Amino acid sequence: MKKFAFALLALSASVTTAQAESIIVLNSEDASYSILDRATRMEVQRLPLGREPHHLILTPNGKEVLLASTFTNELVALDTRTLERRYVVRDIIDPYQLGFSPDGKWMVTAANRLDHVDIYQTDGYKLAGRIFLDSIPSHIAFDAASRTTFVTLQESGRVAALDLATQTIKWNVEVGKAPAGIVMLPDDKRLLVALTGEESVLTVDPKDGSVIGRLPTGKAAHNFRVKDNRYYFLSNRVGSTVSLIDTQEMKVVASIKVPGGPDDMDITPDGKELWVTQRFLRRIAIIDIAEMKMIGSVRVGKSPHGLIILKTDPAAVPNKLRSASIEPSPK
Amino acid sequence: MHWLLDAWIGTQTWLFETFVSPVLFHFNLMEWFDDAFDAVEFFMLGVVQILVIALLMRPLEKRRPMENVKNRRLPAVDRVYTVLSKLGVVPLVVFVIAYPITNEIELQMRGLGIAPPRIESLMPWLHDHPLVTFLIYFALYDFAAYWIHRAQHGFSWWWALHSLHHSQREVTAWTDDRNHVLDSLLVTLVLVIFSQSVGVQPGDYVSILMVGRLIESWSHANVDLGFGRIGDRLLVGPRFHRLHHALGTPAEPRIYDHNYALVFPLWDMLFGTARYDRKARPMGVEDPAIDADNDLGWLGQQVAGFRRFAAAILPRLAG
């Protein structure tokens, strides 16, 4: 009866808006991904995927979202409108984190277990260069000109800057304990680096990697999500909090408890809600951004990691989507 | 069932966030953050297994014993083995040694772009039947475990270690974990590599291990209960497995070279090692040097087992 009521609610939501919002979550220890419906806050489907899927990303044209499975070395592309599987990109080795340069020409992957960073030409996903680095390459950022990519090296406490065109190391410097999340601020002159082994975020000069500032945050500062040009959300995994950072004043302006090792985050298209993976609780927390208050959570699979919120066409999304990891497809 | 899952995960998260994650953070061990969370679940499952043995299997052993217990002192050491094993002390030691090896194999495979095959790739319909998929992986795992068990009896150096498990004269539900640490290490290494190569998910591996170990504890129980004529051929129970622990006699030499299967007797039936009868036999091994384990505590047994192992392997190494 409860399910029927939710289904009615979902149906009415889709009829009135003609566009739904779906959240895709990668369940990293279940080899699956969940599709959630924002209106009903329910898991609609759970589908299998290659082993150890951790992160996902929109393609530069926004038509597909790539789900990266690290153990099976593949990217599964889903149509962002219908959520149907479009193709699989094979032989992307250990794609733990991945990012596209702002100009869309380069795709960079961090091979977390194999200690290298791969730079691909987006067109055809052709490997341009592989750069071996210190241990545990983790998160990725770019400069605005798409000349440089910045990668945190979590276990070795370093950040490296790599030239995209030549696939060479520009600099590689030690910054602090377990650097993870990294973002370039809109001024293109400051990198923010979250230290998971500490309780702070560093401001780093992208020219040479020198540390130019430190902001105390929460225990095990880990990952960022941009709110707007000025404010950034930060998840703190041991502190189990999400902080809101004002990057102009460089101070934490709000903080909220999000239990269960909060990690990746995304914001709903209307800017009202922040959805956060709760790795340990197998849930996705929903935060009202205006109130900075947790207003709900949705049950998903084991160790949910990456997530993305998409505007989908409810009429086009099939009732039962095909499994996503079983058929070979051309690169 | 959602409330049970929520309670379980909530307890796991609380234990982790209260006791484990602050320690990892303090000692800058954050790269083990997610693995340590899984280890907490392993610990919790161990507690549940100990409770099941103590509260369900032991009362049954008292009520319907297959053999009368002659020496109540002997199973005491097996309780030490069980606590050390189920609460993660021995598995942690095994993990610390085995991880660099299995991790290197995994990295090499990844580096070569070799993704282990998955059964679901061959049979896509399995995607919609997780229980069937789990049972297939379970059967594969048990098949590997059957052959490892035969190797434990077949190679003299491995028997030198494994005989510690067989030396118990009073086999009870606690006896399953009575193993030499080196024996556990070898078995773990082979099973993890096998599981990696057939694509068992880490989450499934823990479930297989936990369900399997519970069945194995039950199969060691001194209980005169079976699953019926058909059931006894589907699942290993005490009658089937206790024959595997029976003392060899001139009439039945090396009777323990039967009924190797840990969970599914099918393997013994297929490979001609199954033996079904309900005769009560004394437990243990006929070799007095191995039987002497019964006079020793945990550490003494480990030392004795290692000495037997060294005596078996050194002449080979010396050529």
UniProtKB/TrEMBL annotation, chain A:
Residues 12-313 form the YNCE-like beta-propeller domain. Coiled coil: none annotated. The keyword DNA-binding applies. Keywords: DNA-binding, Signal. It comes from the Bacteria. Gene3D superfamilies: YVTN repeat-like/Quinoprotein amine dehydrogenase. InterPro entries: Host-pathogen_enzymatic-act, N2O_reductase_N, WD40/YVTN_repeat-like_dom_sf, YNCE-like_beta-prop. Residues 1-20 form the signal peptide. The keyword NAD does not apply. GO terms for molecular function: DNA binding. This is DNA-binding beta-propeller fold protein YncE. It comes from Enhydrobacter aerosaccus.
TrEMBL record, chain B:
GO terms for molecular function: glyceryl-ether monooxygenase activity; iron ion binding. The chain crosses the membrane at residues 42-60, 80-101, 131-148. Keywords: Membrane, Oxidoreductase, Transmembrane, Transmembrane helix. Residues 134-273 form the Fatty acid hydroxylase domain. GO terms for cellular component: endomembrane system; membrane. One of its GO terms (biological process) is lipid biosynthetic process. It is found in: Endomembrane system. Pfam families: FA_hydroxylase. Its main location: membrane. It is a multi-pass membrane protein. PANTHER family: FATTY ACID HYDROXYLASE DOMAIN-CONTAINING PROTEIN, STEROL DESATURASE-RELATED PROTEIN. This is Sterol desaturase/sphingolipid hydroxylase, fatty acid hydroxylase superfamily.
